[in-house]
Amino acid sequence: MMTLRVGLLGVGMMGRHHARVIREVEGIDLVAIADPGGDPHGVAGGLEILPDVDALISAGIDAAVVAVPTRFHEEAALKLAAAGVHTLVEKPIAHSLEAGQRMVDAFRDAGLVGAVGHIERFNPALQQARRRIEAGELGAVYQVATRRQGPFPGRIADVGVAKDLASHDIDLTAWVVQSDYDVVFAQTAFKSGREHEDMITITGRTESGVIVNNIVNWLSPMKERLTVITGEKGAFVADTATGDLTFYANGTLPLEWASVFSFRGVSEGDVTRYSYAKREPLRVEHEAFRDTILGEQTDLVTMEQGQRTLLVVERALESAKTGVALRPAG
């Protein structure tokens, strides 16, 4: 396997983890780091901290990871595309749809791998759920409901909870059921005194007819990362904080208590918590980035998919302002 020379732009809260994982993955070599703010977490090792993306490109890199605030994604990505560098940008793809589309176009026109770090696709619980759904173990999928809530992260200043967190749930929902959102209706709240929303609830339906519900906030003292996928044979419950996947099967034994049966619709069946290897999602994502560059098919989130997720987020925010259900276009 050839070794790819990788540069990292940004070594803040997320960038420090990228630095660690890049050094652990076979076939990629961290050769340069750039961050105008220096190295607050001490991850550079023997590498010089370069001042900007231009210096990073000058280091002679094959691929780059962009882990700077969202508003800086476009400028960095366009320079990397112009230099012929395959690039993974952290989610969301960009601060605006126009910026995101310019990024999509630049990497497509250059024939480069452009990807977005929607890391939940690589969570072991969701990877297991996706494989089991594809194998028919859940039957037809009826509904996906997610809950992603917890305390406010002080480091996030340039976007609200919809772009920072709800984008995870939109991407993972569309990926799990293999169908894009067709219609969304949302409500938001502004409780922490910031200009951006800190709570959003999104309801809607995918193009395949799956009902979706995403509950997301920065206002809860309880951290929760839960995805419930309900289908004709039962329900998968994926806890992405622990990587656990549990299957609640529809019962096959008839209930003699008629009133309970008529209320529930299905009876309670066996409950199974699956056992499987739980690999770090960020490491799996980097392996997928490497393999995609080398020409393999992976679950890596393309910039086109990242742009679609941003579009759904923007339509949800617009819906919250207007009180009207909207269809993402494009």
Rg, alpha carbons: 21 Å
Overall structural class, as computed from helix and strand content, comes to alpha/beta
Total E-strand runs:
14
Biggest sheet layout: 8 strands, mixed
CATH class of the largest domain, named: Alpha Beta
Write down the CATH topology of the largest domain: Dihydrodipicolinate Reductase, domain 2
Helix tally equals 9
Task: Tell me the overall shape.
Answer: globular
Taken together, the total number of domains comes to 2
Round the mean pLDDT to the nearest integer and report it.
94
Task: Spell the H/E element sequence.
Answer: EHEEHEHEHEHEHEEEEEEHEHH
Structural features, described:
This is Gfo/Idh/MocA family oxidoreductase. GO terms for molecular function: nucleotide binding. Keywords: NAD. InterPro entries: Gfo/Idh/MocA-like_OxRdtase_N, Gfo/Idh/MocA_Oxidoreductases, GFO_IDH_MocA-like_dom, NAD(P)-bd_dom_sf. Residues 4-118 form the Gfo/Idh/MocA-like oxidoreductase N-terminal domain. The protein is an alpha/beta fold and 330 residues long. The chain folds into two domains: 4-118 and 283-300, Rossmann fold, CATH 3.40.50.720; 121-277 and 310-322, Dihydrodipicolinate Reductase, domain 2 (2-Layer Sandwich). Helix content is 33%, strand content 27%. It contains nine helices and 14 strands. The strands form two sheets. Strands 8-9-10-7-11-12-13-14 form an eight-stranded mixed beta sheet. The protein has a six-stranded parallel beta sheet with strand order 3-2-1-4-5-6, with helices on both faces. A hairpin with a 4-residue loop joins strand 9 (199-206) and strand 10 (211-217). Helix 3 runs parallel beside helix 4 (97-110), helix 4 packs antiparallel against helix 9 and helix 6 (161-177) packs across helix 9 (303-322). The longest helix is centred in the C-terminal third of the chain and has 20 residues, at 303-322. The radius of gyration is 21 Å and the shape is globular. The model has no long low-confidence stretch (mean pLDDT 94).
